[in-house]
């Protein structure tokens, strides 16, 4: 039975009814011209995808759409050009070939050899015409990324290119159960790479034509365990095992456990993790702490550092007073050492954290309580 959408306009209602498109090529051209139709949320991303390739030539052929997400993930989209299983297998094989073309490129090679060629090809949309590099495209994307998130984007992009952990999307008007079974098999057996089927729907009614896209088959969500962690990205077990000082390691383990129990997200990156909370003013969580290996630092943050990036906080005015009180409480803890750089934060080193990790957990608890009471 065709799907229907009830539309209200000028006090009256009417149905838009799903109808077959003239052909797959018709829908393909609509999606290429309007890539915002891609259901980024269903692919696991908060923001719209950024197109960095459209009919771009790779060693194996021409990829229909090549996108990146604000997380740094790479999304390849290939359109099935016919209704039969061989057409589906051909599209799937092409995607894997294109993924192998990108595999093991450095970020710089990806930028110069793929993105910059697309931006200078004339196929880029009008809003991208002034962009000459990946950095330009990201800056004009509409994403509101702070310095930490931008750094994380490039870090994740490098990991994806190195491991091949790419999002592969086959788009078409219809898929059969056999096609979905093939996709389930790939998602269950491949260590890296995630496969999706996206149906493109055309609807008509009252002299209107509408189009929509929805994910109809997707991989199960990956856990945060080390088995699902991309190569080059830290995880809690590896991070803790690298700490030689037993008292510091135990204090760090207890502190991370407190964060998780309070609902604070522990976002592991290539070096350590950022501790993040959900706030109403922005789609991405706000970082309120960082844990880093002893040999690493970021913007002056080292070891266990708690506080905030003022640039990020400025975009979150609804919680500014609460965060300011949080930072002030941190400064009262014994041994807290102010970050001598861009962050409004305090460092708790291996000699300090074991003495104050319980007080730190109480400060974090007060922060969460105040945010929940808003």
Characteristics of this structure?
alpha+beta; 24% strand; six-stranded antiparallel beta sheet; 11 helices; globular; 374 residues; 2 domains
How far is it from the N-terminal to the C-terminal residue, by CA?
46 Å
Q: Give the overall shape, derived from the CA principal axes.
A: globular
Rg over CA atoms, rounded to whole Å, is 24 Å
Quaternary state of the chains = single chain
How much of the sequence is in beta strands? 15-25%
- From the helix content, strand content and strand pairing, which structural class follows? alpha+beta
- Biggest beta-sheet profile: 8 strands, mixed
Q: How many helices in DSSP terms? A: 11
Mean pLDDT level: 88
Q: Tell me the helix content.
A: 25-40%
Count of the domains: 2
- State the low-pLDDT regions, or none: 223-233
Order of SSEs:
EEHEEEHHHHEHEEHHEEEEHHEEH
Q: Give me the count of strands.
A: 14
């Amino acid at each position: 039975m065709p799907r229907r959408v009830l539309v209200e306009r000028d006090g009256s209602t009417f149905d838009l009814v799903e109808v077959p498109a003239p052909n797959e090529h018709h829908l393909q051209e609509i999606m290429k011209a309007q890539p915002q139709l891609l259901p980024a949320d269903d692919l696991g991303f908060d923001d719209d995808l950024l197109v960095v390739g459209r009919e771009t030539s790779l060693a194996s052929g021409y990829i229909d759409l090549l996108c990146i997400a604000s997380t740094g993930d790479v999304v390849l989209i290939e359109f099935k050009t016919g209704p039969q299983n061989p057409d589906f297998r051909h599209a799937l094989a092409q995607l894997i070939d294109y993924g192998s073309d990108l595999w093991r490129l450095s970020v710089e090679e990806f930028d110069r050899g793929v993105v910059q060629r697309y931006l200078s090809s004339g196929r880029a949309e009008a809003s991208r015409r002034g962009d000459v590099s990946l950095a330009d495209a990201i800056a004009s994307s509409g994403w509101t990324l702070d310095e930490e998130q931008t750094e994380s984007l490039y870090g994740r992009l490098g990991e994806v290119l190195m491991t091949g952990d790419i999002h592969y999307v086959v788009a078409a008007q219809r898929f059969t159960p056999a096609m979905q079974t093939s996709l389930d098999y790939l998602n269950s057996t491949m260590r890296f790479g995630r496969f999706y089927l996206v149906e493109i729907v055309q609807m008509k009614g009252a002299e209107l034509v509408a189009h929509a896209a929805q994910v109809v088959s997707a991989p199960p969500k990956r856990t945060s365990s080390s088995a699902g962690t991309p190569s080059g990205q830290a995880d809690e077990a590896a991070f803790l095992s690298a700490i030689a000082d037993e008292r510091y390691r135990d204090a760090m383990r207890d502190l991370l456990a407190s964060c998780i129990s309070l609902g604070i997200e522990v976002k592991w990156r290539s070096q350590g993790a950022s501790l993040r909370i959900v706030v109403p003013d922005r789609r991405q969580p706000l970082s309120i702490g960082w844990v880093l290996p002893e040999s690493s630092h970021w913007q002056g943050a080292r070891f266990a550092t708690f506080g905030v990036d003022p640039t990020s906080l400025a975009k979150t005015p609804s919680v500014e007073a609460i965060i300011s009180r949080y930072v002030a409480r941190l400064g009262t803890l014994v041994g807290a050492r102010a970050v001598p750089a861009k962050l409004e934060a305090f460092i708790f080193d291996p000699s300090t954290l074991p003495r104050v990790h319980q007080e730190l957990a109480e400060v974090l608890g007060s922060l969460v309580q105040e945010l929940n009471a808003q």
